[in-house]
Amino acid sequence: MPAPAHPADQPHRAIARYINYQHPLIIFSQIIPWHEIQAKLKDIYAQNKDQNHAIRKMAGLVLIQHTSSFNTEDEKLLDWWREDIYWQYFCGEIFHECQPPCTLEEFIQFKEQLGKERIDYLRSFAK
Question: Which of 48, 69, 60 is nearest to 113 (CA)?
């Protein structure tokens, strides 16, 4: 019998195969107006040509961070994101990612570019 393949040799695994669609974060992800959010925040990417992270991923991180049950520090949020397929799905990922979604510096810069008004706009969806 051949040895099992090393995980690095296997193709990415689709998150959708492993989640419970009744999970509150999955339901929440389906009611968020992502197109509206992307339209409202797209100017951030026009200002920052080096930004290569999807708006949904970054805005999703802010939303997760500001929900009452996950309110946490930036660094912990990015570490926990790697381990939570529900957070990844919420942020628009299709495949499980083992790396943080961005660096701590990129996340802090994104939030600074958002400013209080747009962070409050995102937080309004989490109420």
Answer: 48
